[in-house]
Amino acid sequence: MGFKPLKIKNFRIEKPIIQGGMGVGISWDQLAGNVSKEGGLGVISSVGTGIYENRAYAKRVLGEGRPYEAENFYSKDALFKIFSNAREICGNKPLACNVLYAQSDYNRVVKDACEAGANMIITGAGLPLTMPEAAKDYPEVALIPIVSTAKALRILCKRWQRTHNRLPDAIIVEGPLSGGHQGFKYDECFMEENQLEKILPPVVKEAKNWGDIPVIAAGGIWDKSDIEKMFALGADGVQMGTRFIGTKECDASEEFKRVVIGAKEEDIKLFKSPVGYPARGVKTRLHELIEKGEAPKIRCISNCVTPCNRGEEAKIVGYCIADSLSDAYDGKLDTGLFFTGANGYKLNEIITVKELMDKLVNGE
User: Fold this and answer.
1) 112 neighbors 137 (Cβ within 8 angstroms)
2) Residue 239: left (phi > 0), alpha (psi -120 to 50), or beta?
3) pTM (2 decimals)?
4) Which of 132, 252, 285, 313 has its CA 20 to 30 A from that of 348?
5) Angle between helices 29-37 and 76-90 in degrees, nearest 10
6) Domain architecture of the chain: domains with CATH
7) Residue 269 and residue 341: Cα distance in Å, rounded?
């Protein structure tokens, strides 16, 4: 027996499974297009589009291959091409774009995504209080913020209602087992009260205070039984990232997939990040180089996130996140940063998106 479809704004997602937005280049046209084609919600990451198709869409620093400044790291032309390719795969089925609140040029990238054909914008990495302003010219586009607490949702709804007389079209509540950046401080990620099973019910309750806002659970969800558990706690849908790395259509390099599939449970750690939030990934050669003080020199070519303050935070934590994620996309094992959720060690095979969606809906 399948799951009930998920309705967000005027869009119907037949299988209430959202594929998490993963950058740089892990969820672009092939993965997102195929997830939407198979009845889920494919999510294109807007991060680092300047390296798409061998960096053909961005001015770059000669000899470096790095996109120069935010306007090139977040390339509008490349984002349009990614959406166009994804549309060829999924047709007119719903398709979303993930735009981090910490991104440089946040408002511009949201507008670019809307123009490119995104039906929904998903934003985390900070509480997106100004998200409606960025999308004000596109009322047909659904806005989906990511929160980690009921308090955060309440603050956000009050602000949105006061400043733009609108509310979120759906909410993603993310627990601290997800891959990439977290919504909690390092120590808070390990506290029992901050785990997804604990934070989901209060967010569901708070959402009901503001009307009929669908709530999507995320962070550490792995299989059908996990999905059913989230539904029992009040969720209307789930978001999953890491399991989609183990698909043939995932846009990541084969080297990236091999790193995650080869990771043991003890290899997956929380790291400091220039974004200002802890981030989860596989401990690799990069982290050994950071500890030895031999990591690549930080030059801040792309100016990718505002909290980094043009490389100042990168120097403190020992690596540039734009360069390291781009290197992972390129399959550079020594300098790449390989994000994955806490359950990434469970990945042991590469299957098609169609096969994965069938497993998630019907069981293993």
Assistant:
1) no
2) beta
3) 0.96
4) 285
5) 30
6) 6-56+74-253+346-362 (3.20.20.70), 257-339 (no CATH)
7) 9
